[in-house]
Sequence to fold (175 residues):
Amino acid sequence: MPTQQDYDDFIAWQCRLRKFSMRELGGRPTPGMSAGIHSVDGGDEQARLNFLILHRDSDARTREFAHIVRKTQDPTQWIKNGLRILAERHYQEAEPFDRRLTALFSTDSSVAYALLKAGACHLKFAEKSVGHGFDFDVASLDQGDPMFEATYWHNHLFNPTLPGQVRILAFTPRL
Fold:
């Protein structure tokens, strides 16, 4: 059974991957930023998704991202300004990050539906020789929830065609 220290090590690893992605890859996700989704009982990978890690207090950053998107209609400026913020200071330390992960789906996503129906899943993250796997409880977030808003605006920075209506799920580790 994974421990809190194992999970803390995972979040620190995620910060390193994301800092590299922002600074060197223009924000493109690395393989370790996505996870294979499995049943908690085992079995084959059912899907693969990118996940976000969010600061516990993300309101100020969310407002900053929303302002970037709203102040210009030029998506290249959104990305440029978002990358500047994320590369400079966002992933510097692992301590401020919430334990929960989030993922964004279309409102009619069959994967989101299956995850909610199961209520739990096992996520396997891997890149190069490093890998982490944890069981998670899965829940839907409501629009207006700070984690919903943080996930929506973060994703909107990098996806100008993001629809206004989405489904966002939270993944809480079972430790």
Q: What stands out?
A: The first strand starts at residue 34 and ends at 39. The longest helix spans residues 4-24.
